[in-house]
Amino acid sequence: MPLALLALAIGAFGIGTTEFVVMGLLPQIAADYGVSIPSAGLLVTGYALGVVAGAPLMTVLGTKMDRKTMLMLLMGLFVAGNLLSALAPAFPLMLAGRIVTSLAHGAFFGIGSVVAADLVAPDKKAGAIATMFTGLTVANIVGVPLGTFVGQAVGWRATFAGVAALGIVGLVGIAKLVPALPRQQGARLRRELAAFRNTQVVLAMAMTVLGFGGVFAAITYIAPMMTHVAGYSDGAVTWLLVLFGIGMFLGNLLGGRYADRRLMPMLFTTLAGLAVVLAVFTVTAHNKVLAAATILLIGALGFATVPPLQKRVLDQAHGAPTLASAVNIGAFNLGNALAAWLGGVVISSGLGYTAPNWVGALLAASALALALWSAALERRSAGASGGVGERVSEPASEAATDSVSALV
């Protein structure tokens, strides 16, 4: 494994930690600033919306310079945003720090995926990309629980300062280990935008918003739900987040393994299972053991959808997947923002801390409906063309992967 992949994984680890750790620290942050927990949930919503806007914006800006330099600038932005969050004297500045941090998120994973693929032989590209994304999943097993523990023991500001330091390590690693990479020779932006006229691309992104949003409807408010409903102590939230992270890791492996084999059946199964588990969580949240098991399942089912959803976008975007891929990363976070906001609405309406689970179940069920519709449209199109669509899908996917290197 090239050491440059380790540098990218460290960056992904830092980004994953800062994205998710705020959920375990919401009560402390809310109390420190004197705001309600639903208001503090804006830190999740604001970050997610920043990724939605930043993913395509920073990706397009990244075409003006070589990829290594862009990755270093993104990590610099990440460090600055976390330092602002750590030092913010007022809630609006804390929110601003989260938004600054979020601007680096989508483009880092989009450009980093291309760099990772270019570092290895053609038959190892998917494994290289998975290695980088392992940093994100491991963040939820190690980084998020550790950050939550530190935040509860020493203060949440120390957590964000530590994440900023981790970003500096990632920045230095990229500078030292990632080789010099050629500058993009002209962005074919019009061709990239044309991918969004494809109904299947739009449906895949809508599935991403709703399906992944289902996960965040519940997980955003996991700390108050587990302390006020299940009866866990504040310190136990750390270990519950470890369980969620383990579920993410296992789900990511499962989704990656089957996305190339039976993509749509995999989506049907995971989205249906996610909808059921989130609905059941309204009941199991009242029991410590069952709540813990359910959190593990939510992580596994939720992140098992990530590889197939991302691959679906790449397949359907055909020869112009770069911007579509970046926008789909933003779509994951648009789902996060939507779900966090809706979860805050139902809590503020007096429906209790388990009410966001029903929101999540409805979002996941809606994603399943879109997946079934997308498959029906695909079968109809394949039938009209005599099955040609099925025969060319794999080569199209390979062409999409190869074209990433030429475009970014």
TrEMBL record:
Transmembrane helix is among the record's keywords: yes
Keywords linked to the UniProt accession: Cell membrane, Membrane, Transmembrane, Transmembrane helix
Region (Disordered): 385-408
InterPro entries cross-referenced by the UniProt entry: MFS, MFS_dom, MFS_Efflux_Transporters, MFS_trans_sf
Chief place where the protein resides: membrane
PROSITE patterns: MFS
Gene3D superfamilies xrefs: MFS general substrate transporter like domains
Cell location: Cell membrane
Protein name: MFS transporter
Source species: Catenulispora yoronensis
